[in-house]
Amino acid sequence: MFDLEVLVTTERERSRKRGGLALGDPAASSGLRFKNRRPEVPASGDNKVKICHCFIRKLLCCSVRLNPDATFLSGGGSFKKGKSKEAEIKRINKELANIRSKFKGDKALDGYSKKKYVCKLLFIFLLGHDIDFGHMEAVNLLSSNKYTEKQIGYLFISVLVNSNSDLIRLINNGIKNDLASRNPTFMNLALHCIANVGSREMAEAFASEIPRVLVAGDTMDSVKQSAALCLLRLNRTSPDLVPMGEWTTRVVHLLNDQHLGVVTAATSLITTLAQKNPDDFKTSVSLAVARLSRIVTSASIDLQDYTYYFVAAPWLSVKLLRLLQCYPPPEDAALRSRLTECLETILNKAQEPPKSKKVQHSNAKNAVLFEAIALIIHHDSEPTLLVRACNQLGQFLQHRETNLRYLALESMCTLASSEFSHEAVKTHMETVINALKTERDVSVRQRAVDLLYAMCDRSNAKQIVAEMLSYLETADYSIREEIVLKVAILAEKYAVDYTWYVDTILNLIRIAGDYVSEEVWYRVIQIVINRDDVQGYAAKTVFEALQAPACHENLVKVGGYILGEFGNLIAGDSRSSPLVQFNLLHSKFHLCSVPTRALLLSAYIKFINLFPEVKATIQDVLRSDSQLRNADVELQQRAVEYLRLSCIASTDILATVLEEMPPFPERESSILAKLKKKKGPGKLPDMDDSRRSVNGSTDSTHSFTDVLNLNPAPSSGANLLIDVFSESSAPAAATDVSEENFPRFVCKNNGVIYENQLLQIGLKSEYRQNLGRMYVFYGNKTSTQFLSFSSSVSSSDLNVHSKAVDPVIEGGAQMQQILNIECVSDFSDAPVLNIQFRYGGALQNIAVKLPVMLNKFFQPTEMMSQDFFQRWKQLGAPQQEVQKIFKAKHPMDTEVAKAKILGFGVALLDGVDPNPANFVGAGVVHTKTTQVGCLLRLEPNMQAQTPNGNAAPPATDPSFPFGAGLPGSHLGICSRCRGEQGDGFVGLKGTWPKSHELKVAFDLASFLPPDGRVCERLLLRT
Amino acid sequence: WRRNHRNTSCVIMSNNMQFMLLFSRQGKLRLQKWYVPLSDKEKKKITRELVQTVLARKPKMCSFLEWRDLKIVYKRYASLYFCCAIEDQDNELITLEIIHRYVELLDKYFGSVCELDIIFNFEKAYFILDEFLLGGEAQETSKKNVLKAIEQADLLQEVRYVIKPPWEQ
């Protein structure tokens, strides 16, 4: 094969002569197939076949022997599997040694031999062996002037990339020469190599060169294609190095190119770039729609070789549709209707009879269709298209092609989350449930589970949960855990009546106990504890479930915990008297693992408190050698301590110590978090959103959220059971940054920024020009020490220096930390305070957004009326001005508004505005680099409800935000925004860059609604 | 509302093939092409896992499967499996046809291609793939144009090109 001269002329002939596992005639068979023919090895007598062929053949003798199709080798001997592997390795090591000696030898190798050996190395590497030499020789080949040698050199480098920097320089040199050669074949080789390797060094060397090649007028089409995709690869690996800007427009115009291959490559590039900078590539939308429209309306022969099995340019169509998914629906009506026409045409084509029976035809056609549906879902604005898409997918659900059924289920999942098509998706529920039962392929069944999960809402939750439960009994082991999580989430989310929820979870444990993770059973306990209407039922149900001769350990855990807490609720019945309950639990004790036994011991001590009549029995159990002298330290300690506690403590103390668990704090569902983690981000439809849009509002019955993570103990009380869980002290999951109290600090500097069950964080801060000092107070609310306490501040824009803190905070104590802050230049992101400490063995992570906004660096400025209005008028440019409108919730209070404006940081200028009801203010924002003046105007209207002469909205109209019926106390409209009925306004003007005004206005604006005292439109000038 | 759309657009990933593997029914790797940077160790691990997973599937099963956070699209042609990994948002069917177009190209070039053609002429298989797919994206979907490019390159074998370094030009 190295005699390529010979190969070219004889390749066809030879391959035909020797036969082989040939691809069938595409015209004759329904699709291309490799055919299993008995091939012959190229005759070794053929002197045209060079050494590497011999080598490959010898290796094949070692390795391909096992291929039953390759019977041509079976005459040669009878190696067994292990032997043949050994033989292969032996043969390869011999060859490697040979090549190494050739490369190291004194005699310089000629290009041909070098090529031969490099090629052998490549082949050995592709067989799966490690190659650690030969790179240098490959680089030599790459800079050879003989095409065949160059080609092999490039291939070796592309396949065996090595980040050896010396070599990269040499490689880059070779590439540079080839790029400059103006020979399209060489240029393509070089571009392919860059695209294949795509390393940072290459990006540094060529990222500025390639755009020029791409848009140059005299570049060959094939080179343009390579250059476009090469640039795409570099943009992916090192986006910072790919220059944008001057060539953006010319790249977008490649969409208009005559050559469809160029358009195909360019579309990929533009899509990638548009994802990062949508604004720069906005113009591509109209070009893409025009291109798409021409393709979908063309006759199938128009596009010649770009027609694939009677489908016009399927790859290009898919890419164009994908590009359009980077943007919202076009605003221009004509463009929008043209796009809608395209999408309709694609949907119509799906209904037409197929032009060919080949699977390639239907695949290509449906590939375009699915991408069009993806675009329709992305736009989520055309109900008719969404419903049509849903109906089309519904047809596919029963298609005989497994692939189509799979994709229809997958695609419908996203449709289910659109408010327009959610109902349409639900009509296919029976089909999907049927798929769950009849599909033979597990991956299709999994899609069906996903879809059922996505289409679930209150109306069908019971049926879907029941179907999933019954499927769980026969489900594949690989997907059981996921189904368990989904059932648990749905059952909780849509539970109207919590007895159903408890039943469902207990069923889960019964059917698939091994797959019920801790999160799930923690969760059921939390819900039972937080809802007293279900406690009695839960106690009764677990008691009954525990009667089963063999029950899962998870059930024992749930049973132990619930009976320990609420066993008294069913103790009145003689069939479940305290002693019966205890004996039932204890009968499971010996079959359980250590953590479960520990939990049961805690349940026993709770029993002692609940039922004095069984105290003696339980004490006997605790006193037995198997408890008091248990080999496990944890169990032994519990037995000793509980026994002691029960003996010496008075009933009052027992009752306090063993009090019923307080409700758990509200928290995001960790089951949901776990499912998200399992499925990867973005995979799950956001159920909250979909439910909200479908039902119109969120349900107040679900106001409790998940509290699953039991690690942080509730406040100091003696919650003995808590240590059952804290021993499994997994590190606390990364917390979200708390911003809850952040807005309160816009206009004030002191207060509590964060508080949870354990910790309170207070702030006291002062600012002077561009410097600030913040005192942070950490208060330990518990009676236990916080250990390994540490805090750090992360900020992208500000200089924040924090003083070190003591690693221990005693119970009930407070600790102070000082932060010094310097504002370098204008900024928009507030710093984040990260806190970490250990409480009761569990690691706590807390992140709090610190209230340091730009307005903290205001210095108030006094100003006369004339000055003020002169400047106000000068700052009229649109980028210097921000306005904000607010809806009033409460009556206007002048004093409160004044205090707010002062708190915001500006000086309040009395008597400046001719209208005494208006407020004006002025200040200078100080940063290290610049100072920015800023004027503020708040224009409430203190007059009647309707200053512009319209009739007052009726007092019952909830959309009218002010306290109608309280004349004179709400805000009206100022002259600047007349017509905005019912809203006041505040304005702010400034000279900082455009991006910041919005932020400033937002900061200023955000101080208004939370307290609800002021309601106006905000106009800010700086 | 418009803001929302812009935000969601950032989440969409590009149509990006991560890698393509060709392996025989016996699990022998015949061709590998990686479009994302990975260490050799990872590549070997992925290959091993994937070959095992795909070979275990029955003939009538669908051609797509979820694997880690990727989607695998595969098709079997006689003794060879062609297997591509794409990202979550990508189009499975068009990837299936990418595989088919590649097989067509090999078939046309070799004239009734067989597994041995790919073993003996692995470099050609790579060159054809590079002409067709680059950086994981379809570069040229016209069969004629791809083969024309390869044939042109083949013609060059006998011609010696003298490239002068830039400083001598």
UniProtKB/TrEMBL annotation, chain A:
GO-annotated cellular components: AP-2 adaptor complex
Gene3D superfamilies in the record: 2.60.40.1230, Leucine-rich Repeat Variant, TATA-Binding Protein
Location of the Clathrin adaptor alpha/beta/gamma-adaptin appendage Ig-like subdomain domain: 743-851
GO MF assignments: clathrin adaptor activity
Annotated localization: Cell membrane; Membrane, Coated pit
Residues involved in a 1,2-diacyl-sn-glycero-3-phospho-(1D-myo-inositol-3,4,5-trisphosphate) binding: K102, Y112, K116, Y117, V118, C119, K120
Bilayer topology: Peripheral membrane protein
Keywords carried by this UniProt record: Cell membrane, Coated pit, Endocytosis, Membrane, Protein transport, Transport
Assembly with partners or alone: Adaptor protein complex 2 (AP-2) is a heterotetramer composed of two large adaptins (alpha-type subunit AP2A1 or AP2A2 and beta-type subunit AP2B1), a medium adaptin (mu-type subunit AP2M1) and a small adaptin (sigma-type subunit AP2S1).
The protein, known as: AP-2 complex subunit alpha
Source organism (scientific name): Astatotilapia calliptera (Eastern happy)
Function comment: Component of the adaptor protein complex 2 (AP-2). Adaptor protein complexes function in protein transport via transport vesicles in different membrane traffic pathways. Adaptor protein complexes are vesicle coat components and appear to be involved in cargo selection and vesicle formation. AP-2 is involved in clathrin-dependent endocytosis in which cargo proteins are incorporated into vesicles surrounded by clathrin (clathrin-coated vesicles, CCVs) which are destined for fusion with the early endosome.
Record-linked Pfam families: Adaptin_N (PF01602), Alpha_adaptin_C (PF02296), Alpha_adaptinC2 (PF02883)
Region described as Disordered: 675-708
Taxonomic lineage from the root: Eukaryota, Metazoa, Chordata, Craniata, Vertebrata
Polar residues bias (residue ranges): 693-708
GO BP annotations, alphabetical order: clathrin-dependent endocytosis; intracellular protein transport
The family this protein is said to belong to: Belongs to the adaptor complexes large subunit family.
Automatic annotation (TrEMBL), chain B:
CDD domains, per the entry: AP1_sigma
The AP complex mu/sigma subunit domain, residue ranges: 17-156
Any GO BP annotation: intracellular protein transport
Residues that span the membrane, as ranges: none
InterPro entries, alphabetized: AP1_sigma, AP_complex_ssu, AP_mu_sigma_su, Clathrin_sm-chain_CS, Longin-like_dom_sf
Record localization: Cytoplasmic vesicle membrane; Golgi apparatus; Membrane, Clathrin-coated pit
Alphabetized GO MF terms: clathrin adaptor activity
Membrane topology reported for the UniProt record: Peripheral membrane protein
GO CC field: AP-1 adaptor complex; clathrin-coated pit
Keywords carried by this UniProt record: Coated pit, Cytoplasmic vesicle, Golgi apparatus, Membrane, Protein transport, Transport
Location (main, coarse): membrane
Signal sequence, start to end: none
Coiled coil: none
Family: Belongs to the adaptor complexes small subunit family.
Purpose of the protein: Subunit of clathrin-associated adaptor protein complex 1 that plays a role in protein sorting in the late-Golgi/trans-Golgi network (TGN) and/or endosomes. The AP complexes mediate both the recruitment of clathrin to membranes and the recognition of sorting signals within the cytosolic tails of transmembrane cargo molecules.
Subunit structure of this chain's protein: Adaptor protein complex 1 (AP-1) is a heterotetramer composed of two large adaptins (gamma-type subunit AP1G1 and beta-type subunit AP1B1), a medium adaptin (mu-type subunit AP1M1 or AP1M2) and a small adaptin (sigma-type subunit AP1S1 or AP1S2 or AP1S3). Binds to MUC1.
Protein name per the record: AP complex subunit sigma
Lineage of the organism: Eukaryota, Metazoa, Chordata, Craniata, Vertebrata
